From TrEMBL:
The keyword Ubl conjugation does not apply. Its cofactor is Ca(2+). This is Synaptotagmin 8. It comes from the Eukaryota. The keyword ATP-binding does not apply. Residues 85-207, 217-350 form the C2 domain. Keywords: Calcium, Cytoplasmic vesicle, Membrane, Metal-binding, Repeat, Synapse, Transmembrane, Transmembrane helix. The chain crosses the membrane at residues 23-47. It is found in: Cytoplasmic vesicle, Secretory vesicle, Synaptic vesicle membrane.
């Protein structure tokens, strides 16, 4: 800061002023120009940053808990927010964001409260599966939250959905209790028909979890995986199955298991177990070893399918599942654990899925790169 002072009693005309050299004037002018340019740059940097427009942002805290329904414009956005419930009622699921554009549906799951304790210690390890009934092969999952009955998820997922399918589609959110060595237990679910949602208003609500709708049970299978990066050996041990679907007229099945390796979406190798007669709970304990080079492990899918053997007619598939970097949920976790624990066999139970659902998933999903362990 400069302070300039003037004395009014001094007569300027009486001063003997020495002329300023021309080079000094030029130097001062250049310095002033540089200073002005520097100040202009600072002003533009500080003031030129534009904040994103409100319509371009989706925030979990964009609407306060006391907000009532208000009109919004396309892209339609439904915010499901609520203050804490007044009663200590049953299970509650708190949803956050549902944004619908002409071909996109964004779903946000914020939190759950007062969940049922599923573990012996009086807690649960909850996570949420989200899908649309119009496209059941595309499912999203939240992270697993350990030892809590009041998890806070704050996760969002995006579905591509034709607008013509919106009136017939239902959003399903199922909350499960994660188990390492047994089947994951379902705690409850919320079903929200999209036709029942006003796409022009903000909605606030807690939703009670209800008992999950019973789907056709195809059975469960237990197997272990082991991979040794240095030798490139992938070991699959088929242990047992239980609660298999009845395929024969006398209420039993003759099950056997096929293990396929798929490389870059093409069938590569196959192994088959022996047939177990007249049982819905077969015990196999059969091991298969595949040669899978370390540089190919992320491009391989392991497809495990259970079949009913028939001497007269064609063998029928009971159910399937697949593991690999394109898998999701329990299957992806099992595969990831195998890669994270080289040389160690890891056994786990898995639920069988409809064969056509698995086949479609194998044809549509893209690979997810998982971190590989050191050789």
């Amino acid at each position: 800061m400069f302070l300039l002072g003037f004395n009014s009693s001094v007569c300027l005309c009486s001063l003997n002023v020495t002329p300023v050299p021309k080079w000094a004037l030029i130097t001062v002018a250049v310095a002033v120009a540089i200073l002005l340019l520097f100040l202009i740059c600072i002003i533009r940097c500080c003031c030129g940053k534009k904040k994103p427009k409100k319509k371009e942002r989706v925030s979990f805290h964009a609407v306060s808990s006391s907000t009532t329904a208000s009109l919004v414009h396309p892209p339609f956005c439904i915010l499901l927010l609520s203050p804490s419930p007044q009663s200590s009622g049953p299970i509650l699921l708190h949803l956050v964001t549902l944004c619908i554009t002409p071909l996109k549906l964004k779903v946000g799951v914020k939190q759950a409260a007062e969940l049922k304790a599923m573990d012996s210690g009086g807690t649960s390890d909850p996570y949420v599966i989200v899908y649309l009934t119009s496209d059941m092969k595309k499912r999203y999952e939240t992270k697993v939250y350990r030892k809590t009955l009041n998890p806070v998820f704050n996760e969002s997922f995006t579905f591509q959905v034709p607008q013509a399918e919106v009136p017939e589609s239902t959003l399903v959110m199922q909350i499960y209790d994660f188990n390492r060595f047994t089947k994951h237990d379902i705690i409850g679910e919320v079903r929200l028909p999209l036709a029942s949602v006003s796409l022009q208003h903000v909605i606030e609500q807690w939703s009670d979890l209800v008992a999950a709708s019973k789907e056709e049970q195809l059975g469960e299978i237990c197997f272990s995986l082991r991979y040794v990066p240095s030798t490139g050996k992938l070991t699959v041990l088929i242990l047992e199955a239980k609660k298999l679907k009845r395929m024969d007229s006398h209420g039993l099945s003759d099950p056997f298991v096929k293990v396929h390796l798929i490389l870059n979406r093409k069938k590569w190798k196959k192994k088959t177990t022996s047939v177990k007669k007249n049982t819905l709970s077969p015990y196999f304990n059969e091991v298969f070893v595949f040669e899978v080079p370390f540089n190919q492990i992320q491009n391989v899918d392991v497809v495990i399918s259970v079949w009913d053997h028939d001497k007269v007619t064609k063998n029928e598939p009971i159910g399937k599942l697949f593991l690999g970097c394109r898998a999701t949920g329990n299957q992806l976790r099992h595969w990831s654990d195998m890669l994270s624990n080289p040389r160690r066999p890891l056994a786990q139970w898995h639920s069988l899925q409809p064969p056509d659902v698995v086949d479609k998933a194998l044809g549509l999903k893209s690979h997810l790169k998982l971190p590989l362990p050191p050789r």
